[in-house]
Amino acid sequence: MTRCKILRRWILFCITLLLLAMPAGCASAPGNPSAVTLTPEQIQSDGNLVLVNAAHLWPENYEPESLISLIEERPQGLVGLRDGSLTAQPEAFQALVSMLEAAKEAGYTGYIVLSAYRSYEQQAQLYQEEQQDWLSGLFSSVSQTAAPGASEHHTGLAFDLGVMEGDQLISGFGDTPQGQWVNAHCADFGFIQRYAEDKQDITGIIDEPWHYRYVGIEAAQAMTASGECLEEYLNMVD
């Protein structure tokens, strides 16, 4: 056995031990001694501009008020849903509906909401699944999945979008005509593409051209004009 294979097996063994040591169903966020946990009062005060990231954590047992069921509220024929359990904050979803109605008028259809609000427990499960990909954990400098408490999906203000052709989900949302239209017009409806490639060092999240965050029209247009991400706009860059 070569030294390289021995080293690889040793690393895999160590990571397996770490994963086995994790409590079932729980995944801890990477250590960040300066991280603060938001209070319900802060969340309500900040409203659509609440900042949730690895340094500003969503409280584990707090759920946004007035979440609505997307399957009950969506206009028929406008947008698909990954499943019937998706929920979101009403103002954000109504803005999404308005945006996709405008897209339809411009000739762009086939949109599907892949993810909206996520509970702390749902995010913990997704994060733990990512950590089990040990190669990604060792060699990726940015996360593909936010840790529980650090995800914008906790707010009910964020949507992951996709495009369907028939019963087929099209890969590369940002490269589709539908995705390009949303990127060009989202600010007019209060949305920003939250995680851009040139902001990874600030957000800590990879380029996600499918992830749109509702912040309100004024803030979205200001950020689009300045080229700032939400951390920069709020002057919350470390």
The span between the termini is: 46 Å
Give the beta-strand count.
10
The domain tally reads 1
Number of helices: 10
CATH architectural designation: 2-Layer Sandwich
**What order do the helices and strands follow?**
HEHEEHEEHEHHEEHEHEHH
Describe the structure.
- The protein is of the alpha+beta class and 238 residues long.
- The protein has one domain: Muramoyl-pentapeptide Carboxypeptidase, domain 2 (2-Layer Sandwich), CATH 3.30.1380.
- Helices cover 38% and strands 16% of the residues.
- The protein is built from 10 helices and 10 strands.
- Strands 4, 6, 7, 8, 9 and 10 form a 6-stranded mixed β-sheet that branches. Strands 1-2 form a two-stranded parallel ribbon. Strands 3-5 form a two-stranded antiparallel sheet.
- The radius of gyration is 19 Å and the shape is globular.
- It starts with a helix and ends in a 5-residue tail after the last helix.
- Mean pLDDT is 86; it is low at 15-29.
Short synopsis of the structure:
It is built from ten helices and ten strands. With 238 residues, the protein is of the alpha+beta class.
Give the topology, please.
Layout (H helix, E strand, L loop, with lengths): L2 H19 L14 E2 L2 H7 L9 E2 L10 E2 H4 L6 E2 L5 E2 L1 H16 L5 E5 L4 H12 L2 H6 L18 E8 L2 E3 L6 H9 L5 E5 L4 H4 L4 E7 L2 H10 L3 H4 L5
Parallel strand pairs: 1-2, 4-6
Antiparallel strand pairs: 3-5, 6-7, 7-8, 7-10, 9-10
